Amino acid sequence: MGDVSAELSKRRERVDAALPLFLGHGVCAMPDRLRKAVEYSLTAGGKRMRPVVLLSAVALSGGDEEATLPFACAIEYIHTYSLIHDDLPAMDDDDFRRGRPTCHKAFDEATAILAGDALLTEAFRAMGESALAGREPGRALRALSMLARAAGASGMVGGQQLDVDAERTRPGEADVRAIHEGKTAALFSAAAGMGAILGGASEEAIDRMCGYGRALGLLFQVTDDILDETGSFEEMGKAVAKDRGRGKATWPVVYGIDASVARAGSLRDEALAGLVAFGPEAEALREIVRVVSVRRG
Length: 297
Fold this sequence. Notes:
Elements: H1 2-18, H2 32-42, H3 49-60, H4 69-86, E1 96-97, E2 100-101, H5 103-106, H6 109-128, H7 131-135, H8 137-151, H9 156-166, H10 173-199, H11 203-230, H12 233-236, H13 242-245, H14 251-255, H15 257-273, H16 283-294
Antiparallel strand pairs: 1-2
């Protein structure tokens, strides 16, 4: 277990070190204030779950982790952009993220919006200009398209719209599922699927990885919803107990804590079951499931 944890920590460190490298230094003249806002948000911390999932899936598939770092960073750029926009007054109106002022509080709303826009578009430039895209254009294009679909109107952005819409309704089970599938599970599923694609896995393995990522993403979101009800600012690095007050469509709000804990347990089992066919080589991905299951922030 210790070796696996060290392996995941090393991947996270590699992502942290690589994040500034694919932001167009020497390629584009990003205005200074915009670059500062982008880098402020990227360096705010975080577990880097999505890029670590991608790199772990690459390794499982026999691919080159170093070559796929631009894709791992791209998915973190998109995740970070979504957090910047999610924190805005028009969305969740949060003043803190990961224990420090959100981007629009540290800079201003207009700069925060533009920082999110920059991260979203830089993600696709980083993938498209990668050395791997030059060597393996078919794999790169397929991975890029998978990420675009997961991040777009039928994935994360669509899920966020459903989340906003639910504040004006009395959400039910179908609403909660649709929101979670879009705003969280889609990006996790893409991370795992992209890793398999870039690593040269079979079609069956790619499908299995996408299913694993989907269950992991749903587990992550249900756990996050539970922590919003039971956690503290110190643990979460942001305001808690806001979802219920705003009528958010979360499992605890709709079904209560006990049912949410049970749901998390079933999702954990589903994610682990999706890895059975990969044998002991998938231990890093199993460890990610365990980390998500017990996280406190």
